[in-house]
Specification:
The complex is a heterodimer of chains A (147) and B (174). By secondary structure, chain A is an alpha+beta fold. Chain A has helices at 3-11, 22-30, 34-46, 78-86, 112-126, and strands at residues 50-57, 65-71, 91-97, 103-109, 131-132, 137-138. The termini of chain A are close together. Chain B has two domains: 10-73, Orthogonal Bundle (Arc Repressor Mutant, subunit A), CATH 1.10.10; 83-160, 2-Layer Sandwich (Alpha-Beta Plaits), CATH 3.30.70. Chain B has helices at residues 20-29, 39-47, 51-63, 96-105, 135-149; strands at residues 67-74, 83-89, 109-114, 126-132, 156-167. Chain B is elongated.
Chain lengths: 147, 174
Amino acid sequence: MDDVDRAIVNQLQGGFPICERPYAEAAAELGLGEDELIRRVEALLAAGTLTRFGPMYHAERLGGALTLAAMKIPLDDFERVNAIVNGFPEVAHNYAREHEFNMWFVLATETPERIGEVIAEIEQATGCKVYNMPKLEEFFVGLRFEA
Amino acid sequence: MSNAAAIRREPADIAPLIDATDRRLIQATQEGLPRVPRPYHAIAEQLGLSAEDVMARLRRMLETGIIRRIGAVPNHYALGYQANGMSVWDVPEERLRELGRKIGELDFVSHCYHRPRHFPDWPYNLFAMVHGRDRAQVEAKVAQIAALLGAADHGHTVLYSTRILKKTGLRIGL
């Protein structure tokens, strides 16, 4: 990754134009040619530096629901519970974290009601309590990740 | 937006702002835009729509917040941000909004949310995801948040991820 890639990653995390030739417009702001920007975005995607290039949708506004949930699992029972939790298609991301609350996952469901049902199903299947920690308010400012 | 008025608004808060064509457009773009000189035209062709319609729909979704933003989504691990610490804070409810906004403005915080407490096990009501190149960097940033909160910090901790157990990404079911 060189300075041009870095400028692309830093400056194009939002505001990509909606017009006939958006790459040309964005490239001009970066002092690049359209071809070069397209080629570099493609390469950044291929290298895994970018996971995606395009619109980021707001899942909740599409009628689905999201929540963050946590569990406290005894270490010797972790793998069993992990297999059960990951078996639920509604579990989108799941992270082990160093804490008494050692499993944190995001539930994404098609309806808000389904969140409570899935939590009850996970509790039933694992025998462990699930702590539901939905977002009550978001203090969202920007996007970062300086490259 | 000429076609905003044509969008049927339903009383329920369940996806009142998008129609069936928007859903097809979302499906066609949630993996990304084509890397061609006229990406919106390419999508329009694929969906049998006009490019003007595709662009108008995307603009409207951007205005209504259905699209958060359009651009590059970096993989923060690939950028060297190996340490992500979920810092969690016990903050007085009446100051939560004011303080949440201040923390959300910090350039090293990628997400800042108010979430419910679960007494007695979980006293924390403010979550701020802090990214750093290593734990020492995360700790220094957490100390900055603590300084900003001052006496409003009734307790905090940082949870580091040790393992990704599952990552399928958020697929929008349509």
